[in-house]
Design a protein that fits this description.
The complex is a heterodimer.
Chain A: H1 3-15, H2 21-33, H3 35-71, H4 77-87
Helix pairs in contact in A: 1-3, 2-3
Chain B: H1 4-8, H2 13-28, H3 35-55, H4 63-79, H5 83-86, H6 105-117, H7 119-130, H8 135-142, H9 147-171
The chains are: A mainly alpha, B mainly alpha.
């Protein structure tokens, strides 16, 4: 793999706690001394949050479709009735 | 006969609609009047529950009770309620909602931008990190011939999208203001 990809992998391993304690210590020192690496690491950390947010968004959309299917299915009439009754409690 | 693994397996989504949704509606009815609001709360709770299941080593006596517990936490957060009003069982206190479950504005904007600029990469990274799929499955889903190709592509995507984040987040700080 290219050097830059190796660095990306190293940051990824660091963020996921997959470096050995020795390598993590070295990485911490490098982050202190290297602002460019710090920037990359911060961006990659933010990216992890972005991916989680994206994953949840897709899952919400899928659940929404499933819910619409379920609630409009005549076979689920008694469940729908139960839900509506509980909402009025 | 049901195998022990199947008996211990967490219930599926359809089963949870049947068993947990009415209970969630009953709990939430006091604060969330509409079916849509309760549906959204229930879906958020399902997502949190399935994320916990996917992380492994997560066993609960009752998935339904756990989901109702998550909904209580979401209601506390949403309506700024006192915890003791809703958390009736001791074990419910230990339920945790992920810190970034409701993403901040920067993260949301980056996600929307990346959906347009690099959706394929975002899908690939989702499969790796969010869904935690095995390499073999990821290679098949995205049409890579080998698992190695899928891994290399993951790092290429990480690098590409990280550069995008760097550019948007750090070079155009005012973009987010």
């Amino acid at each position: 793999m290219k050097t830059s990809l190796n660095e990306t992998r190293e940051i990824d391993d660091y963020l996921h706690g997959m470096l050995s304690p020795e390598d993590a210590t070295v990485m911490n020192a490098r982050l202190l001394l290297n602002p460019a690496l710090r920037l990359k690491c911060a961006a990659q950390r933010r990216l992890q949050s972005v991916v989680r947010a994206f994953g949840r968004r897709v899952m919400r959309q899928e659940l929404q479709l499933r819910f619409d299917e379920m609630i409009n299915n005549p076979a689920a009439a008694s469940l729908k009735k139960k839900i509506v009754a509980n909402l009025k409690k | 006969m049901i195998s022990p693994e199947a008996a211990l397996a967490p219930p599926g989504i359809d089963e949870l609609y049947e068993s947990a949704f009415p209970a969630v509606a009953a709990v939430a009815s006091k604060w969330s009047a509409s079916l849509e609001e309760v549906r959204d709360l229930f879906h958020d709770a399902l997502i949190i529950y399935f994320e916990k299941v996917q992380q492994g080593n997560f066993v609960v006596a009752s998935a339904e009770a756990y989901i109702v517990g998550i909904v209580k936490h979401l209601l506390i957060r949403k309506h700024r309620l006192q915890r003791r009003i809703l958390l009736t069982a001791h074990w419910e206190e230990s339920i945790q909602i992920p810190d970034d479950f409701y993403p901040d504005v920067k993260t949301t904007r980056l996600m929307l931008l990346l959906e347009q600029a690099g959706e394929k990469c975002l899908q690939l990274l989702k499969a790796f990190y969010y869904e935690g799929l095995p390499l073999q499955l990821i290679a098949e889903r995205f049409g890579y011939r080998t698992q190695h190709s899928a891994t290399v592509q993951k790092y290429k995507c990480l690098e590409k999208t990280r550069r995008y984040v760097e550019e948007k987040q750090f070079s155009h700080e005012d973009f987010f203001e």
